[in-house]
Give the backbone structure.
Amino acid sequence: MARTKTKLFAGNRLRQLRQREGMTQAALAECVGISLSYLNQLERNHRPLPDHLLQSLCERFAVGTSWFSDTREAHAVQALRETMADPVFKTAPLSLVQMAEAARHSPELCEAFLTLYRAYTFDQERRSHAPSANTPPLEPYEAVGNWVQDHNNYFHELDCAAESFYEHLFSDDVPLATALAQHLQDRHGLSITHSTALQARGLVWRIDRHKHQIQLPHNQPPESTLFFLAQIIGQLEHNRLMTDILRKEGPKDRNAQELARVYLGNYFAGALILPYARFLHTAETLRYDVDELRRHFEVSFEQVCHRLSTMQRVGAEGIPFYFLKLDIAGNILKSFSANRFSQARFGGPCPLWNVFRAFATPGQIQVQLSQTTDDSIYLNVARTVGREGLSYADRPRQIAMVLGCTIADATKTVYAAGLNLEDHTLVVPIGPGCRACGREQCSHRSLPVSGRALDTGSNARGVVPYRALPEH
């Protein structure tokens, strides 16, 4: 059965684009050849945005189709669902339809509400556990995560600078790591040495300016050395560009700014070792086969996955992937999404997600079709990453990651081979974490839905020993 195309309501984003260009409704309507009343209906979300007009707007304003996607609204709805699950809202519950309408029509108000809720929970925590605490309601890593998400995990100026550096340095005859090391020697007078003491000090690299050396661990894999050399070049030669980005549009909190600077340094390194145009062309040619890509570019599985989540250059977009990295306890270490997917903000992720099965099969790829509670279906590719133990006493961190795209993009990847994408019988239902997940009959549920009245029943007992009464 053919899937029905979802209507695109993009009034808020259309209005933002028009106002950004300083245009009146009449001017924009004339520019794209539609009536003023029709444009007014589009901006009020009374009419969906048709494909032909979407393309005209993208060409006129030099933006990608992702500008008009409902990704931000989907993430906002997920945040609202988890927030409204708090028992404090049980006297004024909102339906999923009402939350979706709020995210679509009043995104600024939704963000203000979520900020207020974070302040409320922070105050409750402060009163209960730490009367003298002065931590801001939004943690620095959350502020950076939101900032990166707002940019679709793509920073054009930095990406182009890294790509330009690569093209200037590239040679078929010299490995990239060798070329980077030679560049650091020639331009900065820094030679590469290997130290056995760095690991004990918790360092992955160190610049000793007195000795004119870059110290690296003696036992790290080549792909790590490549990435760290790219990091160092970014810090030495593109620090001003990163500072300009942060000054213009970065987070305002000082700690968040410092974390954002680290992120930009990592972003530059990833963009240097996997330059945009070359990487996208190869990814499309190899149908996004991560193992083939890592061998082709001589990088790690994680580096490829992370780079795939950033391919959102206007006019040359790759598949919009989400990318998450987490440890065996379910702690999320990295999270980026260029599509509608949004992970839980409170509590652990859903145990039905294939990223947890990856821990049972180290080094092997797990492929899964999953359906989230908003009925979106994703193709998920998960695998463990990380190093082996160096000694009996060593305790390497157990980490897995998952890369996911919508089922509409799945056919562009090698991972759809052998799957019947039209048959949803074996699609795994996953949720945003038990606290906010409304699936009643899930035998993997670990706690009741928050904010809903419970009925344990007296004449029968189900797979789950409690059920939430219907919302009114």
Observations:
- DSSP finds 18 helices and eleven strands in the chain.
- Residues 294 and 300 are 6 Å apart (CA to CA).
